[in-house]
Design the sequence.
């Protein structure tokens, strides 16, 4: 028997307009969730529906993060799952050559936005006695890469945040976990790097399936986990990257 619409769980997905976010949003909707989809930029083709609330927000602002959670709970009275897919990458160069601009961008995009979302969503999850929070980090947490000092530090801080929050919420029915992919196979990434190695990259649907499982009843015993998702890709651990061009990319795209 199908569940009544009022019984459908609510997922808040950040970075929902990116290459990963579009797939994850579709998977949650197909799984019967009502989805509050958040991004800084929405393509014109994206439209809200009865089951999908679309919001434009810059989550580097704490008030913006608070507002999207309040907007979601006002519409549906709860947030059962936060899938935080927002992240940025900028190589930056050697430690001594990495600029304040790169450090600020990495700490803001990869850590501050996550801090803002956790602070906004934890209280309503604690009040309802249940919830799943999952953030997307990077395998650079396990294997820091040279010239990536600011990025490495920001995603490592993200994982420390996850483990701290999970310990604080362990008795509250709220789980907090992180997924650490290597390269994610999205159209944008293929446009940058071609398709020769794409078969080794992580599928967005693999990440979406993990997010759904961690939010499910069987996944409720997993918290504080830092889960590598490396596909079939050799991670460039401590290798020198010879490219001189500095790139800025959105992980979820």
Sequence:
């Amino acid at each position: 028997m199908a569940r009544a619409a009022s019984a459908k769980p609510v997922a808040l997905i950040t970075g929902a307009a990116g290459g990963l976010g579009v797939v994850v949003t579709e998977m949650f909707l197909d799984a019967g969730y009502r989805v509050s989809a958040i991004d800084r930029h929405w393509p014109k083709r994206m439209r809200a529906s009865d089951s999908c609330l679309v919001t434009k927000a810059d989550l580097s602002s704490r008030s913006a993060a608070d507002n999207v959670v309040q907007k979601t709970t006002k519409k549906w009275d709860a947030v059962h799952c936060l899938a935080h897919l927002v992240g940025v990458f900028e190589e930056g160069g050697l430690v001594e050559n990495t600029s304040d601009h790169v450090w600020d961008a990495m700490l803001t995009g990869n850590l501050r936005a996550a801090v803002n979302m956790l602070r906004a969503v934890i209280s309503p999850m604690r009040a309802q006695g249940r919830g799943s929070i999952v953030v997307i980090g990077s395998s650079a947490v396990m294997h820091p890469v040279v010239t990536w000092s600011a990025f490495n530090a920001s995603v490592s801080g993200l994982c420390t945040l996850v483990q701290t929050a999970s310990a604080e919420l362990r008795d509250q029915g709220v789980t907090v976990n992180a997924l650490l992919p290597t390269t994610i196979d999205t159209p944008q990434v293929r446009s940058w790097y071609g398709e020769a190695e794409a078969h080794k990259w992580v599928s967005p649907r693999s990440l979406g399936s993990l997010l759904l499982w961690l939010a499910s009843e069987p996944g409720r015993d997993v918290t504080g986990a830092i889960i590598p998702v490396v596909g079939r890709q050799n991670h460039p651990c401590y290798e020198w990257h010879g490219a001189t061009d500095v790139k800025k990319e959105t992980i979820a795209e």
